[in-house]
Amino acid sequence: MKYNWLLILVFGLFFLLAGDASAQTHRRSTGKRRPKVQKKVEKDDDTKEFWKDQVWYGGSVQLGYSGYQNYSLFVIGVTPMMGFKIKDTPFSIGPRIGLTYRSVKGYGTDGQVHRASLPAYTTSAFARVKFLQQFFLHTEYELAWNRQVYVDNANRLAVDRNGKVLSEKIQRDNFYIGAGYNSGDYEIMVLYNLNVPENSLEQPFSFRAGFTWNF
């Protein structure tokens, strides 16, 4: 949780800059006495120009299936993101959220087949700097909530006396740094997680692929 201030700062800057830009376009459109209809048209045009030139969108879709000894896992998820270009600079900041549904099915410690739902949520704030037109550096702080099941040494799902799969809700905060390539329509990047827990078998490197518009 030591990076919570960064999440709040980036989200705050995003909405502050967006609001300031909108206010500036409003002041420009109302600087002189003109007919109300004309002022409204100019304000609408400035607002459209702001969202067209300084805001970009992206995201990714996750769909997968994996099988292990005694259980299998199905995953589906979506992760949208929105970036705000800081005017006259190569920098952009913005929020990224994720929603993932995982379903696990397998043999339990009681010898019966069981199924459990394991939802996961993420919310993050990121900053990017673009260079050489198609490349960028990326840093991101993420809060993640997910539910994981317990398995025994034979990879069987742990269940209680009532046959319910035992699971636990876990909160993690991750801090990524990395770089990527953007073609204009899609992007790929490799990130390194500085917050991987000690005594964990989890790899710090992760790969992402998705689509973007107006980046």
Q: Describe the main β-sheet briefly.
A: 8 strands, antiparallel, barrel
CATH level 3 topology = Porin
Taking Cα atoms only, what radius of gyration do you get, to the nearest Å? Answer: 23 Å
Backbone shape: elongated
CATH architect. name = Beta Barrel
Order of helices and strands: HHEEEEEEEEE
CATH C-level name: Mainly Beta
Helicity, as a percent range: 10-25%
Cross-sheet strand order for the largest sheet: 1-2-3-5-6-7-8-9
What this model shows, in words?
- The structure is a single chain.
- By secondary structure, the protein is α+β, with helices and mostly antiparallel strands.
- It has a single domain (about 55-215), classed as Porin (Beta Barrel).
- Helix content is about 20%, strand content about 50%.
- It has 2 helices and 9 strands; from the N terminus they run H-H-E-E-E-E-E-E-E-E-E.
- An 8-stranded antiparallel barrel has the order 1-2-3-5-6-7-8-9.
- The two termini are about 30 Å apart.
- Residues about 25-30 have low confidence and may be disordered.
Tag the structure with descriptive keywords.
Porin; alpha+beta; single chain; 215 residues; 8-stranded antiparallel barrel
Set down the secondary structure blueprint.
Blueprint: H1 4-29, H2 36-54, E1 55-68, E2 71-85, E3 91-107, E4 113-117, E5 120-131, E6 135-149, E7 167-182, E8 186-193, E9 205-213
Antiparallel strand pairs: 1-2, 1-9, 2-3, 3-4, 3-5, 5-6, 6-7, 7-8, 8-9
Helix pairs in contact: 1-2
